[in-house]
Amino acid sequence: MSKITDMTKTHNWSGQKLVSIDHMLFEAPRTKHFMTGSEVLKEAVKRATVDASVSYPITPQSEAAHLIGELWAEGYVGVYFRGENEFGVMSEVAGCSMAGARTITTTSGPGTLRAMENFAQWSGTRAPMQLVLMARGINSPLTIQPDNLEVQYLLETGCMIWYAENVQELFDMSLAAFTVAEQPDVHVPIITAVDGFFVSHTREAVELPDDDIALQPYDPYAAPLPPIDSEMPPGRFLRDPFVMKSNYISYATHASWQWEIRSAVERSKRYARHLLNGLVHITGNEDAEIAFVTCGTASNQAKEGQRELEKLGIKSKVIKLRTIRPFPEEELIEALEGVKYVFVPEFNVVGWLANEVKAKLYGKVDVNIHAGPRVAGGMSLPAEAIIQEVMEVVNPGKGA
User: Residue ranges of the Pyruvate flavodoxin/ferredoxin oxidoreductase pyrimidine binding domain (predicted)?
Assistant: First the structure.
């Protein structure tokens, strides 16, 4: 395998030509392939000049972790190893990123919860690693079926959270995520989420650039915090007595840092708008009075519902959120102009996205927000269920 010392100004250690993210996403010619989400994540990492990846198997992300390991064997990833458990993996990933490596890992469901303490530590140390989350159920009795309840647990960790609807979006987002997370005025971790099985194991047509190009390497010395250094954060933030003691200076330090992390997430918007072609995507009838606010696979189901409603002569539109953190509040408010009814279909039992939408829109728009329809534990969300819920809310007592 090639060594990282083989890096030049024009080519990385695997011999790929180094290009900008704009060239990779918008300019490079693409060819059509037929791949699962796990396979396409391998293709994204192959083109990302990744320095390090740490993995641990859990359904449904095990295949993705395995395929990234193959990239290491093929010379496309600098360092790869398996952790002892999910908590260990996320700790080791933090160490790699804090040392100045472009780092990626994956997890799912219970693995997310076992590693939970680390995610706030990631953002607290302003380390820009990427987690590809292939969401699955976490409830008891144990399930491996599609469900995204775990995303609620990640909302306030200080990490950016993007949500891909399909295999194509997973490829593009995974590459864009490194670039945005590594911006000096952002420099926080990023979680690229997909719904497990629906995306990880579904084979779809996807357009990919040739694999002889790759992203420019990460430059940790251009970051707001240098790589691990005993005299500068994150080194001092992890050990300094003045931070650890109970006094005013300690409180002020922690308070200001918490706000700064969240400000950094907000500053990511301008980069994400460009690389994701907007923070929200809208399909359907522009002048509709019924709107679905969605993310992930629920977007696809809502689009099917929208098409069926149109056959019934009922106008509706789907407002797909590409990012959850930062939350695209301004774009959502603009997209809801003229809307009277909002439905938030979800694959979880608690309706965390509906709660987010209600909190962000409270007092700002005059619209009826309905938390549903939603399913959990691996249940499907057919268009018929969406239409029935719409009819029961818009035409109470008349049903579908």
Answer: 43-262
* Whether 120 contacts 157, CB under 8 Å: yes
Distance CA 379, CA 369 (A): 23
Token look-up 């990282």 returns 4
Per-residue pLDDT of the chain (400 residues; tens, 9 = 90+): 345 557 899 999 999 999 999 999 999 999 999 999 999 999 999 999 999 999 999 999 999 999 999 999 999 999 999 999 999 999 999 999 999 999 999 999 999 999 999 999 999 888 999 999 999 998 878 888 889 999 999 999 999 999 999 999 999 999 999 999 999 999 999 999 999 999 999 999 999 999 999 999 999 988 887 788 666 655 556 656 566 667 777 788 778 888 999 999 999 999 999 999 999 999 999 999 999 999 999 999 999 999 999 999 999 999 999 999 999 999 999 999 999 999 999 999 999 999 999 999 999 999 999 999 999 988 889 999 999 999 999 887 655 5
Task: Specify the 3-state DSSP secondary structure of 303.
Answer: helix
- CATH hierarchy code of domain 280-394: 3.40.50.920
Phi, then psi, of 157 in degrees rounded to 5 = -85, -10
Query: Which residues 6+ apart lie within 8 Å of 393 measured at CB?
Result: 341, 343, 368, 370
Q: Does domain 4-221 have CATH number 3.40.50.970?
A: yes
User: What per-residue string of b and e applies to 167-190 under the rule 16 or more CB within 10 Å gives b?
Assistant: bbbbbbbbbbbbbbbbbeebbbbb
SS3 (DSSP) at 61 = coil
pTM: 0.95
Shared fold status for 4-221 and 280-394:
yes
